[in-house]
Write a structure and sequence with these properties.
Distance between the termini: 75 Å
Largest sheet: 5 strands, parallel
Number of helices: 14
Number of strands: 5
Number of domains: 2
Strand content: 5-15%
Helix content: 55-70%
Length: 390
């Protein structure tokens, strides 16, 4: 059960080896509790939340997941206990915080930083006077060059505290800006329905934000259907396959599916070339953002419908002489899917090229392609001759 007393104030998690950095940990704890009024979690104190059903390592990672609002990572000369995953506990705590997407502030002992370049050039040298394991260097090198994390050097605890004072002040200022932007966005009646990049666009309102929200909602919706797209691609369906053997029945079925695709194509054309234009408004007019999102979601619904119909076609069982006939609705399905995906990609690519204070005319018209019918009618006549039909 989570500690319900937490969450009233921000909670920092201090990640470091304990014994060699004992005084630094005490000083940082006093700074957060005494100067900032934050909660701070240090594993050596009895206030640290421990799950009696897990081991010490898992308890630390669980504490990061459940309680940490920011992580302070301090790297000294000791790598610490190596887990069965081949990484130290502090390394795993860092990765957990990164996955949680919380602010991370990294501090590395200056003595370690000073020999990093020597270690890079001669990794087999003896560095035991600085670190207990060269894995410390590997960890710091990964943070700087692979993770692209900003790393601060320190000699004493006050170096860390002075940096944290300024950086947390910047963080607080950014939060004030976000609060102001959220307050300005409260005219959107269902703000809680927006997440991730779409919410960021809604709050920050960058140049062409209404257009970008359409593209982002569109793209996010297609990504959510990737598993269904795989089902369609590989013809995987839990539904019982339908079998048709009568020529006229097959022909009626093909025309029915083709008609379904035609209706979807008409709806797509209306949504993008009419409804979307209305939602975005004319130049100088305000956009109806909920209408914009509605249009994007409707396009995704149609895309899903195409996949379901296409899967139904793919798993249809017919005799060999009819196999080429049912290729036509599949070609139509493939064409629609490709056009919808390409339009989304084109829209998103175009949005990335838009810059502030630039006037330009962009053609975002949606054009659907139609497969050629010659091969279909050729195959249809061939089957008619087989069955002696006019």
């Amino acid at each position: 059960m989570e500690d319900t007393s937490r969450g009233k104030v921000p909670t920092a998690f201090l990640s470091s080896t304990c014994y060699d950095l004992k005084q630094i940990r005490i000083d940082i704890k006093n700074f957060f509790e005494g100067n900032l009024g934050f909660d701070i979690l240090l594993s050596e104190y009895n206030s640290f939340p421990v799950n009696p059903d897990t081991n010490t390592i898992d308890s630390c990672l669980e504490a990061v997941k459940k309680y940490a609002d920011l992580l302070i990572l301090v790297v000294g000369g000791r790598y610490g206990y190596v887990t069965d995953k081949g990484k130290s506990v502090t390394n795993l705590e860092y990765l957990t915080a990164k996955e949680k997407n919380i602010p991370i502030y990294v501090f590395v002992d200056k003595k370690v930083s000073n020999v990093m370049e020597i270690w890079r050039k001669n990794r087999d040298a003896d560095f035991s006077s600085v670190v207990d394991s060269t894995k410390v260097f590997e960890f710091v090198d990964s943070l700087k060059n692979k993770e692209n994390i900003w790393v601060y050097e320190f000699e004493v605890a006050q170096d860390i505290i002075a940096t944290l004072k300024r950086q947390i002040a910047y963080l607080f200022l950014n939060m004030l800006k976000v609060k102001k932007q959220v307050d300005m966005a409260k005219d959107i009646t269902s703000l809680e329905n927006y997440k991730g990049e779409t919410l960021r666009l809604l709050v920050e309102k960058p140049v062409a934000w209404e257009y970008k929200i359409f593209g982002q909602t569109y793209e996010d919706g297609l990504k959510k259907l990737q598993n269904l797209k795989r089902d369609y691609k590989y013809g995987i369906s839990i539904e019982k396959s339908k079998r048709l053997s009568d020529f006229q029945e097959i022909l009626n079925w093909i025309f029915e599916k083709t008609n379904d695709f035609s209706i979807i194509a008409e709806n797509m054309d209306c949504l993008i070339n009419k409804n979307l234009q209305e939602a975005l408004g004319k130049p100088g007019e305000s956009s109806d953002i909920e209408y914009v999102v509605y249009v994007a979601n409707k396009i995704v619904e149609l895309y899903e419908k195409i996949l379901n119909i296409g899967l139904e076609v793919k798993v249809l069982i017919v005799d060999d002489e009819f196999q080429n006939l049912i290729k036509f609705p599949l070609e139509l399905c493939e064409s629609l899917l490709e056009d919808i995906e390409n339009y989304c990609n084109m829209w998103q690519t175009t949005m990335k090229t838009i810059v502030v204070d630039e006037e330009r005319k962009i053609d975002l018209t949606f054009n659907l392609r139609m497969p050629k019918l010659e091969e279909f009618y050729k195959e249809l006549n061939k089957v008619r001759k087989i069955y002696h039909l006019n």
